[in-house]
Specification:
hpI Integrase, Chain A; globular; DNA polymerase, domain 1
């Protein structure tokens, strides 16, 4: 039987700007594989074609619209895993639009889950983290910068995009705090640990950052950037990802490292050492406690230990 246009909506030649930015974010900040991003592109193309055929825009989408779209995907004969991926793509796009300030409401909040298991963030072990932090030895400017990048990412749990956006004025001179411009945009103050402070001091000096400063700044704002590339420009998200990949290869962790791995490791290790989940939520800049609570599922051993320590009927 020939499929109808409703069952298989034509993929538009171009996606919306917010969908394109979402896919870029997936590739650069989340480190999703090229095939995964391509699959999300097809899913979002089908979704936006479905909306366009009904005269609906992303701003006008509500929960029933999303549920009708997913129901049609099921009727079209897609496998459950494919429907789950389509739902993940749609949900991810709408959440991204809210977090980036493109929309005020996420219509997928009230959409039922697909029943597929949630993907848990992959964190490094503490031993692996120490290996990665030690992967930039030397006193040359690139090594000083890369040590600071690694220490700040792990020490603060900030996103790659947040680190790339840091300006010198965001660093507290004597407070041990850094001002982070998060999604939304939302500002938060994050403490710097001893390792991050020492690495930043080693980088922000004449033999470090000073060696990368150009005679003439090419772009406005580069002069204020905390992290510079070798050409004297602000280190981009892609540049930070390049630092992570280069240093991970040096210590045989290339298969374990992706852009947010130090963010996930920071949260996982803090919770494992007894940090309150709301403190970690504030540190990471999560708008919802549910986003932070996913890290509590990473370590069953920690969960069991906490239960046995706290519950009066856990031990004989």
């Amino acid at each position: 039987m020939r499929a109808t246009a409703v069952d298989h909506p034509a993929v538009p030649a171009a996606l919306s700007d917010s969908a394109e930015e979402f896919l870029t974010w997936l590739a650069v900040e989340r480190g999703r594989a090229r095939n995964t991003v391509a699959a999300y592109r097809r899913d979002l193309g089908a979704y936006e074609a479905y909306l366009a055929a009904r005269g609906t825009t992303l701003d006008a989408v509500d929960a029933p619209t999303v549920e009708r779209y997913l129901a049609e995907r099921r009727r079209a004969g897609l496998a459950p895993a494919s429907v789950a991926r389509a739902q993940a793509a749609v949900r991810g796009l709408h959440r991204f639009r809210v977090e980036e300030g493109f929309a005020e409401v996420d219509p997928t909040d009230d959409v039922r889950g697909s029943g597929q298991p949630a993907r848990l963030p992959r964190a490094l072990t503490e031993e692996q983290t120490l290996r990665l932090l030690a992967a930039a030895p030397g006193d040359d400017p690139a090594a000083r910068r890369d040590r600071a990048v690694l220490e700040v990412l792990y020490g603060t749990g900030m996103r790659v995009s947040e680190l790339a956006a840091l300006s010198l004025s965001d660093l507290g001179s004597d407070t041990g705090l850094v001002r982070v411009l998060g999604k939304g945009p939302k500002e938060r103050l994050v403490p710097l640990g001893r390792g991050a402070i020492a690495a930043l001091d080693d980088w922000i000096c004449a033999p470090g950052r000073g060696r990368f400063e150009p005679r003439r700044w090419a772009r406005r704002g580069d002069a204020e950037a905390v992290f510079l590339n070798a050409r004297g420009g602000r280190l981009t998200r892609q540049g930070v990802w390049g630092v992570l990949k280069k240093r991970a290869r040096r210590v045989d962790l290339a298969d374990r490292v992706y852009p947010h791995v130090l963010r996930h490791s920071c949260a996982t290790h803090m919770l494992a050492h007894g940090a309150d989940v709301r403190v970690v939520q504030e540190l990471l800049g999560h708008s919802s406690i549910a986003t932070t609570q996913v890290y509590t599922r990473v370590s069953p051993a920690h969960l069991r230990a906490a239960y046995e320590e706290a519950h009066p009927r856990a031990r004989r």
